[in-house]
Amino acid sequence: MNARLLILMYHGLQRSADDRGCFDRRYSVPPAAFAAQMACLRAQYGRAFLPDPGEPLLHGTQARVMVTFDDGDVSQAEVALPCLERLGLRAVFFVTSGFVGQQGMVSRRQLRDLADSGMRIGGHGATHRFLSSLSSRELARELRDSRDSLEQITGRRVDWLALPGGRGDARVFEAAVEAGYRAVFGSQPGDNRESSPAQILQRVAITRGLSLAAFEQILSWQGPVVRNLRWRHRLLQLPKRMFGDERYQRWREALMS
User: Fold this and answer.
1) pLDDT at 194 > cutoff 80
2) Domains (ranges, CATH) in the chain?
3) 229 touches 204 (CB < 8 A)
């Protein structure tokens, strides 16, 4: 049995829709809340886990926590990076390569700054399309183009992939491995205690309005907050299977509007 590896997933850091970046009513975490969460993580764990190149993700006997970000929102460079550096923490930034330089997203310079600051850059697709909906040729191109673009900008190897929308199947996983990715991250909540390197890694989405007490339950991976996360994920599997990725996403956006 592996030691627990809890992987936190963030998106944008905004107080309101007036802040820079792409505000989302569910996933935009206020900067003050993020800072308090990172201070809590540091107090409990000392550091955020980020393996050196070539070091396995799932090993050892200690419980560890990893901090990750998806998409490439500009707030990740302008808000998250200073906070992480102040606390001596490192994180992984999964960036959609086609978003770089667009309004509300990181610029090429900011992406290089993240990499130069000791943060790890991972792929998140070239266009953020759901990978399982692509043909084999489109899938291979999406994975390759994303990786090549990010490596060209940062000058560093990109061999981790976060699935856009957190969704992917065995075909996507195999295509990612064939494309040279060494680890694939999803969005199913869990602590990876029973995971193996040949599986899609579980991550826990940190959402807006989460109290610090609830965050502490997530860090320990026990309590009613954790049970609710698991049940919510299970309940959402039915509409996802019924609608498919694209229709489910439109249904979710309609509910959130």
Assistant:
1) no
2) 5-211 (3.20.20.370)
3) yes
